[in-house]
Design a protein that fits this description.
Blueprint: H1 4-12, H2 15-30, E1 36-40, H3 46-54, E2 59-64, H4 67-78, H5 83-86, E3 89-93, E4 104-109, H6 120-132, E5 134-146, E6 154-159, E7 164-173, E8 178-186, E9 192-202, H7 206-215, E10 220-228, E11 235-242, E12 251-259
Parallel strand pairs: 1-2, 1-4, 2-3, 4-5
Antiparallel strand pairs: 5-12, 6-7, 7-8, 8-9, 10-11, 10-12
């Protein structure tokens, strides 16, 4: 009986951290504040909501194909907001490659959603569309993940107060680099929500993504790599620009492409 969208937001997303990174990176790149954001593959619009709440001048547009997920987002993320905040957020049911929005300062595509474009030509079409929706100066912020563990059959479980989140890498084809992954949730009473979310995507490498960004017309791309906590040996949550990194069994990074 649990709500899979609420569970996903709790287990996977950190909207406030996402908008802090977008705000700081844009200011560092262009020396001014970003006010307009587009969230591609927005799902429940959690990042749009956080963006609108962060500053009274902020505006956000979210684009997603799933009508049911968007409806959940409107009811649970937007409707509770004050009217003056809610009217600065627009959620659109549509294809991120063709849905039109006003020019924005930042486009974000989080949680590896663009990996679903398994053909390079299709990915390139998306990146070109994202660039068109940026103003004369703007940033496209993507995330990526990899490492040896990312191309193996493995289940990784994370415990929360009242449920467990399971990331299931069910299959990987090394020739096509197509992976099939699932998200499951389990609960203290022994019940489970299996395959709450299903993903079939291509495990792009960082060089492939950066080369596609260059072909799409972006002036530059920068990899933001997570630092390491000296005491635990785990990631410290601080991402800085890097051109090389030590090998890691499983890593997540941000790739920031600039339009100038």
């Amino acid at each position: 009986m649990a709500d899979k969208h609420a569970l996903y937001e709790r287990a996977v997303q950190e909207p406030e951290a996402d908008i802090d990174f977008a705000t700081d990176t844009f200011c560092g790149e262009f020396g001014r504040r970003a006010y307009r954001l587009r969230e591609d593959f927005c799902g429940t619009g959690a990042v749009c909501r956080a963006w609108a709440l962060a500053h009274k001048k902020n505006q956000a547009w979210g684009v997603d194909l799933n009508a049911e997920t968007l409806a959940w987002g409107r009811a649970n993320n937007l409707d509770p907001l004050l009217k003056k905040v809610r009217r600065r957020v627009t959620l659109i049911e549509g294809d991120v490659r063709t849905a039109r929005t006003p020019p924005v300062d930042v486009v974000v595509a989080s949680n590896f959603s663009y990996f679903l474009f398994t053909e390079r030509a299709t990915l390139l079409r998306y990146l070109r569309a994202a660039r068109r929706h940026l103003d004369h100066q703007g940033l496209l912020i993507l995330d990526a993940y990899g490492g040896p563990e990312s191309v193996q059959r493995v289940e990784d479980e994370t415990e929360h107060d009242d449920f467990s989140y399971i990331w299931d890498q069910d299959d990987f084809d090394p020739i096509s680099r197509i992976a099939t992954c699932y998200i499951h949730f389990t609960f203290g009473d022994g019940s489970a929500m299996r395959r709450a979310f299903t993903y079939r995507w291509r495990m792009y490498t960082i060089p492939e993504i950066r080369e596609a960004l260059a072909d799409a017309g972006f002036a530059s791309s920068t990899v933001y790599w997570e630092g390491t906590d000296a005491k635990t040996g785990e990631g410290d949550g601080v991402y800085t620009p890097q051109e090389s990194a030590d090998p890691d069994e499983a890593w997540v990074c941000s790739i920031v492409a600039a339009k100038r």
